[in-house]
C-alpha cells in the first residue's frame, strides 16, 4: 500500500494546476457572487416569529442540531431588491442526504423518518405581507416528492420582499434556511457530494467556521451557498446508480465538490480501482452535461493504528489521473493532510474527528478553491466532449404533480405524462400493492383501481418513472 506523494509535491501540483488554468483557461472557472440576503432575518412560522430558541439561529449560516424546529408553513422577509433568489434549506434526521429509496448505500440502512425532508410544497412570494401569512401571495415554484435533506431552488423575486414555503406535511427537523441574491447570474453554489466523511465533517459536526464563512471572510463580496450531500457507506457505484436523483436534487448548482472512494477502498482492497474510475468518470460527465464544474478531493487517509488498513496508492493515482484527463481543478488533498495529522482522525481510524477533523475539511476545501474567487468573469463550464455516459441534461423542466385521489377503497391516479410504476407501502415500509400506468398494451396514462385486499389505514403512494418521482400519503377506510 502506498502512502501517496509528499505534501510539498502535491501542493506544487495543486497550485500549479490551479494558477496555470487561470492563465491558460482565462475566465473558464470564474464565479459570480450571490450575496446572502437572509442572515440576520428572523424565521416566521405560521405567521409568528419562531420562538424555539432564537428565531435568528435558523438563518445564521451555521448548522446546529440544537436548533431544529417543526414547520410546514414558514417565511422570511429578505426585503425588496433581488429579482431572483436561490433558496436553500437543511433538515436533520438520519443525517444522510437521502434515504435508501434514492441512494443505495450497502452496509447502512438510511431510513429517513417521515417529515425528515420537505415534501410536496409550494414556494410563494409576496410584496405586502406583514407576518408571512397575510397579504397577497403568488406561487413561484411547486415541488412534489423531494427525497433530499438539503436542496436549493431558484425563484423569480422581482418586486417582492417575502418568500414563504408551505408544505403538505410538516418538516419535523428543519435546521437552516438561507436565501441568496442571484439577480446578476450569481453561481457561487456548491453541492458537497460524499460518503460518511462528508456527512460527518461537512454537516454533522458543529464547527466554528464552515466553508462558506471561510470564503466570505477572505473574499467579503462572496458568500457561497452550501448544499450538504454526504451519504454514509455509499460507494462510487451507489452514486453512479443514483445519478438521476443527484441531477434532480443538486443539478442546479455550479460546483460539485466531491469526496469519494473510502468505501470503494475499504480494508485496503485495490481490486475495485477500475470500477471506481469508471464510476467517477460517469459522475464527471454527468456534472459537465448539466453545466456543473466537478472538483474531486483526494480521499482521506486512515489511521492504521485503529483501522488496520490504509488507502491503496492505486486509488490516489486514479483520482489524480481523472483530474488531469478531464482538465479539472484539483480538490483538497485530504490524504496527505490527514496522514500528517492522525490526531484529526477519530478513534475508528477512518472518519474525521469531531469537531477538529470536520473543521479541517471545511478549511481544506476553502483553501483548495480560493483561486476561483480571484477571477470574476463567469463562463459556462461544459466540456466539448463531456463523454457518452453522461445523463441527459434536463432542459425547460416544467413541474406537473401527479394527482392521487382516494374514494373509499378506490384509488385513482392521473396527471402523469409517461409510463410510471406505482407502489403503496405501509408506514413500516412494506409494499401492500403495486401497479403500473402507461403499459404499451393500452397506452393509458390514467388509472383507477379497487384496493379490496388492502386493510384500512394510512399509507404512502410512490410514483416513479424515467422523469417522475412523487410521493404522497393517503388514508384507506
TrEMBL record:
Superkingdom classification of source: Bacteria
Organism: Fibrobacter succinogenes
InterPro entries (alphabetical): Secre_tail, SGNH_hydro_sf
UniProt KW Signal keyword: yes
Lineage: Bacteria, Pseudomonadati, Fibrobacterota, Fibrobacteria, Fibrobacterales
Keywords: Signal
GO MF terms held by the record: hydrolase activity, acting on ester bonds
Annotated signal peptide: 1-30
Name listed for the protein in its UniProt record: Por secretion system C-terminal sorting domain-containing protein
Amino acid at each position: 500500500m502506498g502512502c501517496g506523494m509528499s505534501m510539498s509535491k502535491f501542493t506544487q501540483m495543486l497550485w500549479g494546476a490551479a494558477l496555470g488554468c487561470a492563465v491558460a483557461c482565462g475566465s473558464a472557472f470564474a464565479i459570480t457572487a450571490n450575496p446572502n440576503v437572509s442572515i440576520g432575518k428572523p424565521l416566521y412560522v405560521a405567521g409568528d416569529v419562531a420562538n424555539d430558541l432564537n428565531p435568528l439561529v435558523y438563518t445564521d449560516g451555521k448548522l446546529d442540531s440544537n436548533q431544529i424546529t417543526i414547520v410546514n408553513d414558514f417565511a422570511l422577509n429578505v426585503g425588496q431588491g433581488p429579482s431572483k433568489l436561490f433558496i436553500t434549506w437543511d433538515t436533520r434526521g438520519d443525517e444522510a442526504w437521502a434515504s435508501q429509496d434514492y441512494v443505495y448505500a450497502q452496509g447502512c440502512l438510511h431510513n429517513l423518518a417521515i417529515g425528515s425532508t420537505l415534501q410536496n410544497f409550494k414556494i410563494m412570494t409576496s410584496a405586502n405581507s406583514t407576518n408571512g401569512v397575510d397579504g397577497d401571495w403568488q406561487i413561484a415554484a411547486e415541488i412534489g416528492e423531494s427525497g433530499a435533506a438539503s436542496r436549493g431552488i431558484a425563484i423569480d423575486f422581482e418586486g417582492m420582499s417575502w418568500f414563504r414555503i408551505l408544505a403538505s406535511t410538516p418538516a419535523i427537523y428543519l435546521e437552516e434556511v438561507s436565501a441568496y441574491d442571484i439577480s446578476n447570474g450569481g453561481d457561487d453554489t456548491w453541492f458537497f457530494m460524499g460518503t460518511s466523511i462528508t456527512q460527518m465533517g461537512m454537516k454533522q459536526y458543529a464547527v466554528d467556521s464552515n466553508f462558506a464563512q471561510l470564503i466570505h471572510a477572505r473574499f467579503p463580496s462572496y458568500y457561497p451557498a452550501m448544499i450538504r450531500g454526504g451519504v454514509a457507506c455509499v460507494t462510487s457505484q451507489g452514486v453512479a446508480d443514483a445519478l438521476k436523483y443527484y441531477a434532480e436534487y443538486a443539478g442546479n448548482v455550479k460546483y460539485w465538490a466531491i469526496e469519494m472512494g473510502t468505501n470503494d477502498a475499504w480494508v485496503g482492497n485495490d481490486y475495485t480501482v477500475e470500477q471506481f474510475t469508471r464510476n467517477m468518470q460517469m459522475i464527471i460527465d454527468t456534472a459537465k452535461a448539466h453545466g456543473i464544474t466537478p472538483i474531486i478531493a483526494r480521499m482521506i487517509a486512515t489511521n492504521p493504528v485503529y483501522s488496520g488498513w490504509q488507502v491503496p496508492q492505486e486509488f490516489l493515482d486514479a483520482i489524480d489521473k481523472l483530474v488531469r484527463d478531464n482538465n479539472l481543478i484539483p480538490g483538497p488533498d485530504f490524504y496527505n493532510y490527514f496522514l500528517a495529522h492522525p490526531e484529526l482522525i477519530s478513534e475508528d481510524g477512518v472518519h474525521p474527528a469531531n469537531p477538529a477533523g470536520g473543521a479541517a475539511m471545511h478549511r481544506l476545501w476553502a483553501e483548495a478553491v480560493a483561486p476561483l474567487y480571484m477571477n470574476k468573469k463567469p463562463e459556462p463550464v461544459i466540456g466539448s466532449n463531456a463523454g457518452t455516459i453522461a445523463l441527459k441534461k434536463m432542459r425547460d423542466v416544467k413541474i406537473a404533480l401527479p394527482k392521487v385521489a382516494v374514494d373509499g377503497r378506490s384509488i385513482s391516479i392521473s396527471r402523469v405524462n409517461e409510463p410510471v410504476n406505482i407502489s403503496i407501502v405501509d408506514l413500516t415500509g412494506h409494499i401492500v400493492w403495486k401497479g403500473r400506468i402507461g403499459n404499451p398494451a393500452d397506452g393509458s396514462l390514467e388509472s383507477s383501481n379497487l384496493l379490496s385486499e388492502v386493510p384500512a389505514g394510512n399509507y404512502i403512494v410512490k410514483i416513479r418513472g424515467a422523469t417522475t418521482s412523487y410521493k404522497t400519503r393517503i388514508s384507506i377506510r
